[in-house]
Amino acid sequence: MSRTVFCQNLNKDAEGLAFQLYPGEVGKRIFDNISKEAWGNWQKKQTMLINEKKMNMMNPDDRAFLEKSMVEYLFEGKEPEIEGYVPPSK
């Protein structure tokens, strides 16, 4: 059974995530306000960021940086800076 959320990233009603994929308050906010589609878009960018910056997910600083980038992307529409990546124009 899919659920619909008003996606703050895409600015439209869209299919929500099936369950909370990220822990804590941020995860709840994402679950309540971000669609499956927007989350998928973020996952691609997250992978590029981790690879480009050679991040280590065991490192708390890297995790904090990623979380900040995720919140800025999902809720503020701010593209992460990924070298050589140009976001498609809207």
Key descriptive features of the protein:
Fe_traffick_prot_YggX_sf; 9% strand; two-stranded antiparallel ribbon; Probable Fe(2+)-trafficking protein; mainly alpha; iron ion binding; YggX-like
Would you identify the CATH architecture? Orthogonal Bundle
* Spatial strand arrangement across the major sheet: 1-2
Distinct helical segment count: 3
The gyration radius over C-alpha positions equals: 13 Å
How much strand content do the residues show? 5-15%
Please report the first level of CATH classification, the CATH class: Mainly Alpha
Mean pLDDT: 93
Q: Say what the CATH topology is.
A: YggX-like
Helix content: 40-55%
What is the number of beta strands?
Answer: 2
Shape: globular
* Class from secondary-structure proportions: mainly alpha
**Biggest sheet descriptor:** 2 strands, antiparallel
GO molecular function: iron ion binding
GO biological process, one term: cellular response to oxidative stress
Keywords: Iron
InterPro entries: Fe_traffick_prot_YggX, Fe_traffick_prot_YggX_sf
Question: Layout of helices and strands, plus pairs?
Answer:
Blueprint: E1 4-7, E2 12-15, H1 24-33, H2 36-52, H3 60-76
Protein name: Probable Fe(2+)-trafficking protein
Pfam family, one: Iron_traffic
GO molecular function: iron ion binding
What does this protein look like?
- Could be a mediator in iron transactions between iron acquisition and iron-requiring processes, such as synthesis and/or repair of Fe-S clusters in biosynthetic enzymes. Necessary to maintain high levels of aconitase under oxidative stress.
- InterPro entries: Fe_traffick_prot_YggX, Fe_traffick_prot_YggX_sf.
- One of its GO terms (cellular component) is cytosol.
- One of its GO terms (molecular function) is iron ion binding.
- The protein has 90 residues and is mainly α.
- It has one domain: Fe(II) trafficking protein YggX (YggX-like).
- The protein is built from three helices and two strands; from the N terminus they run E-E-H-H-H.
- The chain has helices at residues 24-33, 36-52, 60-76, and strands at 4-7, 12-15.
- It has a two-stranded antiparallel sheet with strand order 1-2.
- Helix 2 (36-52) packs antiparallel against helix 3 (60-76).
- The radius of gyration is 13 Å and the shape is globular.
